[in-house]
Amino acid sequence: MKRILSLNNEGHIGYKFEYLLATLVMGMIFLALLVGCKKDPQISDEAKQSYSPTPLAIEKPFRFPDLVIPDDNPMTVEGVELGQMLFFDPILSLDNTISCSSCHRPENYFSDDMAISPGVNGGMTNRNAMPLINLMWAPSLNWDGSAESLEEQAITPVQHPQEMNLNWNEAINRLKNHSVYPDMFRKAFGDIEISQSYTIKAIAQYERTLISSNSKFDRFLRGEVELTDDEIDGYLIFNTEKGDCFHCHGVPEASLLLTDNDFHNNGLDSMFSDLGLGAITNDANDNGKFKTPTLRNIEFTAPYMHDGRFETLEEVIDFYSEEVKNSSTIDPLMKKLNQGGIGLTMEEKEDLIAFLKTFTDTSFAD
Question: What is the pTM of this model?
Answer without folding.
Answer: 0.86
